[in-house]
Structures are given as structure tokens and as C-alpha cells.
Design a protein that fits this description.
The structure is a single chain. By secondary structure, the protein is an all-alpha fold. About 55% of the residues lie in helices and about 0% in strands. It contains seven helices and no strands.
């Protein structure tokens, strides 16, 4: 038993020598979703707090990212999140992809799949109350329809309650 414990401790110490790369890709404001869509400040803050750590090039790495294997798990989530939707490069997406990603974001939020529960536990600022969640969902729906209109594509049947202030 003592030998197993020593092996576990040594293995834990050894894996600390394999940290994750915490350098974010360069963020270009001209390509960022919040900037190009001229998102109202309150809505932008909600999206930034709930989404941007995993879905942008503006990740703020928490202290536990320095401890393996937690850092590896976090790095994997961030890579997957950016691959699925990267708000920092949103302007580079073709119109139909922008519409698809906004629609998927709405579906994920409506089904309580985003933000991830495991993320919200350690990041309480990312937990959206019902009104904030509705605001973000309505904004994504509004932007989806706006993008369709601006590109002469059929608009969605589902309308948004979002009001530009």
C-alpha cells in the first residue's frame, strides 16, 4: 500500500513537468463577434462571462490550469470549444456558417448544455439567471435573423424578443 502511494505521488509530481500552453492566439477586434455585431454592453458582458473563456482567443486561465491533469482537461475543452465556435474569428465565417453557429448556440443554451455545469461550478460569474439567459438567447436569435436579412436569405420563423437599446 505504501509503495502504491509513493508511486502515485511521484507520478503526480512528474506530470507537473508537462504544462499546457496558456498563450492565446492573437485576438483581432475587427473579427470579434461582439465588435462586428455592435453588441450592447450588458449583453456583451453576459456573453463574455459565460462563453469567451472556451469560445474565443481571450481565455483567462484559472490557477488550476497550472496543475496537471486539470490543465490538460481544461486545454482539451478550450481547443474543442474554439473548434466548434470561436467568437474571436466570427467575422471570418461564411454567412451560412455564422447563422448555423448562432442557431446552435441558441439550441445549446435552451437545452442547458451551455455553459457547461463543470465550468459554472468554478466560474460563478458564468452562471446566467433566467432573465440573463433569455437575453443572450434572444440576442443570438436577433443576430441570426439580422444576418439572414442583411444577406437576402430567408428569415427564421422564430422571432426574437431582443430589443436594441
Amino acid at each position: 500500500m505504501k509503495k502504491v502511494l509513493i508511486i502515485i505521488i511521484v507520478a503526480f509530481i512528474l506530470i507537473q513537468f508537462f504544462p499546457i500552453d496558456k498563450n492565446n492566439p492573437v485576438a483581432t477586434p475587427q473579427m470579434d463577434f461582439l465588435k462586428i455585431k455592435n453588441t450592447p454592453e450588458k449583453t456583451a458582458n453576459l456573453i463574455r462571462n459565460a462563453c469567451y473563456d472556451c469560445h474565443s482567443n481571450e481565455t483567462k486561465y484559472p490557477w488550476y490550469a497550472n496543475t496537471q491533469p486539470f490543465g490538460w482537461f481544461l486545454e482539451s475543452h478550450i481547443k474543442e470549444g474554439r473548434k466548434e465556435l470561436n467568437f474571436s474569428t466570427f467575422a471570418t465565417y461564411e454567412t451560412k456558417r455564422q447563422i448555423k453557429k448562432l442557431k446552435e448556440a441558441v439550441e445549446m443554451m435552451e437545452e442547458n448544455e451551455m455553459p457547461l455545469d463543470s465550468y459554472v461550478i468554478l466560474h460563478p460569474e458564468a452562471k446566467l439567471n433566467a432573465a440573463d439567459k433569455k437575453q443572450v438567447i434572444d440576442y443570438f436569435k436577433f443576430m441570426e435573423n439580422d444576418t439572414r436579412i442583411l444577406n437576402d436569405l430567408p428569415t427564421s420563423v422564430e422571432k426574437s424578443d431582443f430589443k436594441v437599446k
